[in-house]
Write a structure and sequence with these properties.
This protein has helices at about 15-35, 40-50, 100-105, 205, 290-300; strands at about 70-75, 90-95, 110-115, 125-130, 145-150, 160-165, 180-185, 190-195, 215-220, 230-240, 240-250, 265, 270, 275. The protein has about 300 residues and is α+β, with helices and mostly antiparallel strands. It has a domain at about 70-275: Trefoil (Acidic Fibroblast Growth Factor, subunit A). The termini are far apart.
Length: about 300
């Protein structure tokens, strides 16, 4: 059967309606582009804020204060019982759902929290220490004192609070099925935390003392009394790659002491390099101690 082929410029059928439809589609596209509402533009805005470099607070007295911007780092450790799949230092970080990260320019709550392998200060892993009443800005936090952990995720007009609650059949960590940890926009008792000394035998003696910066501690949830943990046996696939699951569970060894999975460091910035952290700061050269050693040897009888 013979068939006639026509070029697109040939006007047939509802050609007038087709032309108007194409013009409307083009206008709609240009309007969304100018407003930054295209999917690719919204995705770029979200990722740009999450990966934006940030500056951490610099401590002058060696302690953590209310209002400080810090990294919450789980130090490098190895599980003697095996099964560990995530290694190295891990930083607590904001992790939006992968599908939502592709189509949104904002973070929807509740938002997931993971532990990322990179420890460079950026929007998604920088947290702020908050006081409960907002009147203790600049004062050091103390062992056993309630505080909040919040993040802006790189945005200028957003504040998300780290929280947790008892696990249920409908709400728990994705792989371990332990107590879930999330970010919310409501500052309630479910978002209150406490810092405790990592050695349980000295925990009572340190109660009420200021929390030192860049030193391992245990962070406990006030409502459930469970410790924040980086579950290194479970890796999650995220928009940014494979990262470690974060849950709220106290992992105890045979001596009833928390395992390294529950150890965290509130890390501050390096005063000599604002893009680095104190844990990356090199130790003073051993050559500087040589004159001191010579002086000691000459003074000796």
């Amino acid at each position: 059967m013979a068939r006639k082929n026509y070029r697109t410029c040939v006007r047939m059928g509802n050609w007038n309606e087709d032309i108007f439809l194409e013009e409307e589609m083009m206008k709609d596209f240009l309007e969304k582009r100018d407003k930054g509402q295209l999917l690719i533009q919204r995705n770029r805005i979200l990722i740009a804020n999450l990966l934006k470099q940030t500056k951490l607070s610099i401590t002058e007295d060696g302690f953590i204060h209310y209002g400080d911007k810090v990294l919450v780092i789980n130090p490098d450790c190895e599980d003697p019982h095996g099964g560990q799949v995530v290694f190295g230092r891990l930083a607590l970080s904001v992790t939006p759902e992968e599908m939502k990260a592709h189509i949104s320019n904002d973070i929807e709550v509740p938002c997931e929290v993971t532990a990322m392998p990179g420890v460079s200060p950026i929007g998604r892993n920088t947290f702020i220490i908050l006081s409960l009443d907002g009147n203790a800005l600049g004062e050091p936090i103390r062992y056993g004192q309630n505080f909040g952990l919040a993040t802006t995720a790189g945005f200028d007009d957003k504040m998300l609070y780290l929280g947790s609650d008892h696990k249920t059949m409908m709400k728990s960590a994705k792989k371990s099925w332990l107590q879930d940890v999330y970010l919310t926009d409501e500052f309630t008792y479910l978002t209150f935390w406490q810092a405790t000394y990592f050695d349980p035998q000295l925990r009572i003696e340190y109660e009420g003392f200021p929390v030192p910066a860049n030193t391992k501690i245990v962070i406990k949830h006030c409502h459930t009394n469970q410790a924040l943990a980086a579950n290194r046996k479970y890796s999650l696939r995220t928009y940014f790659g494979k990262e470690c699951e974060v849950a709220c569970h106290t992992h105890l060894d045979s001596h009833k002491s928390e395992k390294p999975l529950n150890y965290w460091v509130l890390c501050t910035g390096d005063p000599s390099d604002h893009s680095s952290i104190m844990l990356d700061r090199p130790n003073p050269s051993s050559e500087k101690t040589i004159p001191e050693e010579q002086a000691v040897s000459t003074d000796a009888p």
